[in-house]
């Protein structure tokens, strides 16, 4: 995937909707990387007025009311630390991220859904340890069969990932849009290569 870094200068006709704010925790790390913690410009301004965040960086884009003018924040930092969750949520996105957005049967990245390795009709549960990313054709081909019956075994045994696992995998799939003011706050905790 390719990330497009947008320059700090905006054309005046750019819509405020194209100006989300990166949200940092009080330790100056994003609240989440995957998906990246972003607020709409309205939510960012509301948080500023409620004194819940500090503006770290701004866009050149200005919004106006009859009595007020405000530069849109591009990076905000919470004033109160929010303790991150210790375990990732069991969501479709996180299953795809754990499996690197790849069908665990054929390796394609197209038309992804998820598959129960042990089918629900055979007592399989919807858990980290029994669900894998699968393309629709492979999912249909496997159907309600057990892996041995279908001759289809996942490339990687499904497992409950840690936040670190998802964080590591997510580095290979940056968001399609990164504003240059965000770059100093993303991936700074990445281990440097010698």
From TrEMBL:
It holds the Pfam family HNH_5. It comes from the Bacteria. Coiled coil: none annotated. GO terms for molecular function: endonuclease activity. Residues 90-140 form the HNH nuclease domain. Keywords: Endonuclease, Hydrolase, Nuclease. InterPro entries: HNH_5, HNH_nuc, NA-targeting_endonuclease. PANTHER family: OS07G0170200 PROTEIN, SLL1193 PROTEIN. Transmembrane segments: none annotated. This is 5-methylcytosine-specific restriction endonuclease McrA.
């Amino acid at each position: 995937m390719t990330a497009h870094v947008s320059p700090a200068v905006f054309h005046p006709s750019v819509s405020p909707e194209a100006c989300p704010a990166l949200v940092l925790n009080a330790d100056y790390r994003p609240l989440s990387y995957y998906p990246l913690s972003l607020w709409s410009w309205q939510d960012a301004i509301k948080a500023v007025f409620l004194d819940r965040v500090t503006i770290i960086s701004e866009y050149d884009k200005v919004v106006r009311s009859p009595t007020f003018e405000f530069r849109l924040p591009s990076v905000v930092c919470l004033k109160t630390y929010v303790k991150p969750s210790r375990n990732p949520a069991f969501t479709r996105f996180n299953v795809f991220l754990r499996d690197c957005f790849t069908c665990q049967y054929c390796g394609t990245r197209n038309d992804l859904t998820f598959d129960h390795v042990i089918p629900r009709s055979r007592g399989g549960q919807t858990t980290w340890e029994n669900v894998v990313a699968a393309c629709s054709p492979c999912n249909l081909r496997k159907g309600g069969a057990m892996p041995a019956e279908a001759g289809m075994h996942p490339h990687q045994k499904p497992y409950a990932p840690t936040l670190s696992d998802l964080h590591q995998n997510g580095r290979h799939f940056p968001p399609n849009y990164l504003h240059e003011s965000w770059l100093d706050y993303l991936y700074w905790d990445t281990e440097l290569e010698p």
